[in-house]
Amino acid sequence: MYFNEACLNYPAALLIIEPKSGEIISANNRAASIYGYSIDELLTMNISDLYLLELNQIEKKNDRYLHIPLKTASNKIITVLEKKYSTKINGKTFILSKIFPSEEKISLNGQKFNSLYDSDTPLMIVDSLNKVIKLNKKFETLFNCKELDSIGKYGYTLIKGLEKNRFDYLLKNLSTSNTNTLTFYNLDDNTTYKLTAYASTYLDDYVGAYITINKTFQTRNNKNFGLELEHKLEEIEEKNSKKDDFLARMSHDMRTPMNAILGMANFGIEEINDPKAVQYFSQIKDSSEYLLALINDILDMQRLERGEIKLEEVITFTPRIAQKIINIIRPRAQQKNIDLNIDLECEALFKYVKADERRIEQILINILNNAIKYTKDGGSVTWKDYVTDIGDGKVVIKHEISDTGVGMSEEFQKVMFEPFTCEVNSQSKHEGGSGLGLAITKNLIDIMGGKISCKSKLGEGTTFYIDIILTLATEQDVKGFINNNIIKIKEGSLNNKKILICEDIDVNITIIKKLLAFYTSNIEVAKNGIEGIKLARENKYDAILMDIRMPLLDGLEATKEIRKFNKDIPIVALSANAFSQDVIKSLSAGMNAHLSKPIIKEELYSVLSSLI
After folding, report:
1. What's the half-sphere exposure (Cβ side, CA atoms, 13 Å) at 569?
2. What is the spatial distance between Cα 19 and Cα 581, in angstroms, rounded to a whole number?
3. What sign for the dihedral angle of Cα 341, 420, 173, 413?
4. 65 near 202, Cβ under 8 Å?
5. Is 373 strand, coil or helix?
6. Which run of H or E residues covers position 97?
7. What is the pLDDT of residues 315-341, one digit of tens each?
8. Taking a C-beta distance cutoff of 8 angstroms, is the pair 555, 504 a contact?
9. Is the pLDDT confidence value at 453 over 80?
10. Do residues 518 and 546 lie in contact, with contact meaning Cβ atoms separated by under 8 Å?
11. Phi-psi map region of 94: left, alpha, beta (phi>0 left; psi -120 to 50 alpha)
């Protein structure tokens, strides 16, 4: 037996499971009581004899209690809350399963919960992933569903007309000291529902919430209400349209100077022989690219609000990610005389992986920047990672980022992942901050299926623990990655070609000319759409590079006019507008391709080569 006396009498059921075979190698008294077998009997069994789940599901580790079904010795099916841990015994890895029956104390407000469950108020209980654990009879009747069929489904799917983002918002940041409410109108049955969510804890771990639902009033025949609702929806649509326009304009206004910064930094790297100057320009370039990534996130606000952010996983080179991060954070550490210690195992063992490179950079840079920000001059920051192979071509990269900074209070640690929260101390007053960094980081890690936690003590520093799951690249993936990163230009396709640049900003004109100078100097410029149409009508060009936002006439309208008399000339949008709808607008206007600023020279060469 691996359990000592304390574990044998622990109030939760404990099992140690061999992860590959599912063999039970240790059990305590509580497990014997719940399963209905003696400890000796359990030690002769496989976990598949008890669980109504496949073994590969049992192997998945989780850091929160999840609701699962199992069968007892009497073949009775019961539901339990289980949390699994990875544990090592004599150097070998096992799964430790910790279980409580769902019927036990599920809420700190036990009496209130029991009375609600048996009352005429519809009630839903969800776990920490917002998935259904239990429904009472009243809920089943009101929403025409069965508890048995609903367990494990996302709660919002059972309530017709309720959007996922609104349901998630109802449960977001819920703690044991408060409740949240949500009122929504169901167009199908002209009914208004009020949802009240109460925080729920299960012994020592947060589980989720229980939600009561009330029909506040019927409005089937209330024409005025329907008219008000219609007007309200129109008002919302108008606001969303204005928001889209604002974000598009902000995209252009912010990305345009970033194009200049990145363009000039690239020229500095390529043209200056002084190693120190090249280092400066490289740091400007890396920092600018990271700032551009942040701008992209801000401009993606609607997708973030609606939970529509999707990972863009591609084959990537882990040493490149690490080096970019180091280039960004090291100058700040040096400025504060902070000792930066870096020990990265992942970059040495697994060079090619499938990952969303920008999101990983965003997560790690944010935590490292905070470590440097809240560490006083002369302190130290350490970044280490460890690799665990979890099979099926996947690995978990465990990042550990620690500092000797000011630390965080226990009270702040409870809310540190909530938006717009900052702990006020001497260092935060000096450094400033929006209070969004940790909230965004936590959301991104959740989307990636990872986890983040921390240990911190005031005056002694902080350590963050971040787990990120990555898929290893195959040999074929690596070959494709290398081939795709080789500039593909048809021999002689760009030499001495005549190019018209339609662009109104001088620094952008300078950058584009320098990018094209390697192949051709036969370049003319139009500073507005009307001038561009005139030159395109009077001259024969091999291609036109068309900015979207220009004075007098924009690039979209100019392209439409050019297409009336020249349908064949390649026209490429060079736009600071980066939204997908902007690309659609460019192509619909008659352009052949859309490239976003800041301009990447490899993309520019490749696109022109394929079109000319």
Report:
1. 26
2. 48
3. positive
4. yes
5. helix
6. strand 92-101
7. 888 877 888 888 888 888 888 899 999
8. no
9. yes
10. no
11. beta
Pairing between β-strand 132-135 and β-strand 314-317 as defined by DSSP bridges: unpaired
Q: How far is CA 174 from CA 128, 180, 210, 236, in A?
A: 11, 7, 11, 27
Q: Please calculate the CA angle 546-548-550 and round it to the nearest 5 degrees.
A: 95
Query: In 3D, which of 593, 600, 589, 598 has the Cα closest to residue 564?
Result: 589
Q: Which two tokens stand for residue 335?
A: 């400025």
Handedness of CA 353, 356, 361, 367 (dihedral sign): negative
Q: What is the pTM of this model?
A: 0.44
DSSP state of 190: T
Rounded to the nearest 5 percent, the helix, strand and coil shares of the chain are 40, 25, 30
Quote the CA–CA distance of 139 and 123 in Å, as a whole number.
6
Of 65, 174, 79, 181, the closest CA to residue 135 belongs to: 79
Q: What does residue 211 show for φ and ψ, rounded to 5 degrees?
A: -125, 125
Decide: helix, strand or coil at residue 181: strand
State the pairing for strand pair 13-17/593-596.
unpaired
Specify the DSSP element, H or E, that contains 544: strand 543-546
Token representation of residue 474: 């195959």
Tokens linked to 297: 């996130």
Report the alpha-carbon distance of residue 543 to residue 499 in Å, rounded.
5
Q: What is the pLDDT of residues 179-222, one digit of tens each?
A: 778 777 666 666 778 888 877 654 334 456 777 777 654 444 44
Give me the residues paired with residue 573 across strands.
Answer: 546, 594
Phi, psi of 603 (to 5 degrees): -65, -40
